[in-house]
Amino acid sequence: xxxxxxxxxxxxxxxxxxxxxxxxxxxxxxxxxxxxxxxxxxxxxxxxxxxxxxxxxxxxxxxxxxxxxxxxxxxxxxxxxxxxxxxxxxxxxxxxxxxxxxxxxxxxxxxxxxxxxxxxxxxxxxxxxxxxxxxxxxxxxxxxxxxxxxxxxxxxxxxxxxxxxxxxxxxxxxxxxxxxxxxxxxxxxxxxxxxxxxxxxxxxxxxxxxxxxxxxxxxxxxxxxxxxxxxxxxxxxxxxxxxxxxxxxxxxxxxxxxxxxxxxxxxxxxxxxxxxxxxxxxxxxxxxxxxxxxxxxxxxxxxxxxxxxxxxxxxxxxxxxxxxxxxxxxxxxxxxxxxxxxxxxxxxxxxxxxxxx
Length: 357
Known about the structure:
By secondary structure, the protein is of the alpha/beta class.
């Protein structure tokens, strides 16, 4: 049996994209908050939410509002972003909200950061070149960390944002700031993520074999740099190297397959909506339902079968964190809750025991 990366015990979390449905958004939010309640009671490690704009893939252009709501109904589960698209933010305002969230969660906040993967969404914010997007992201990242670590006042001079002697009255509960997450999509980014001990989630469009090479590379680089005094995640000694998987558990394999196929088709419509609307091809080849089933990034079936497939995925990739998407597309809420209940009772305990969680 292959051990997870860095011999760090496996953890299991929840990844959410609160998608558009043909009913009031308030009802959708209520169901997803109930999902967080169940994840808390079932012992999931964390709940993470994605940010998108102008897309049926996401009713949450402001992640902070959902995370704030979740903070007031939970006590243990970590809450985080995957990711805040820093390119679209005023970094000082975002830092202030991150400080608020870290206090509202009593120090349970995780902070995922990224540039934003959609050029179409970037154009909504009048960012029309990749070069500008990268430059804005890098500056905003520096400004965000400078603000989060400021003591009595905050000053920063940049091309896109500048601040001078702004009083700081609140600091993060977690020092120097909430643990940082940085999703990785290729080996070029591993040196940065692993060298700084950043939690990461690897792109599940890759094969399990390619993912394994990235996980091994992460372990190698982190081991080399784990004692560096200037790591960006100095408060993280056991970084999570994760993979996102869609999960549907039902009483029978056939029931689960029927539910998952329909929901996946709707999710595909949502995730490709902006590209189809613009009349352009897919940004990356995402693969269909059968591809994800074969690749182990979509776990569907009875509890016994899902446990077998999840074990195979962890063994093949070496990841120490699995982010399960239990609701996607138009999967009915009742089926989602049943799926999570069955997973929590019949799958998760054996997985955590087997892989040292």
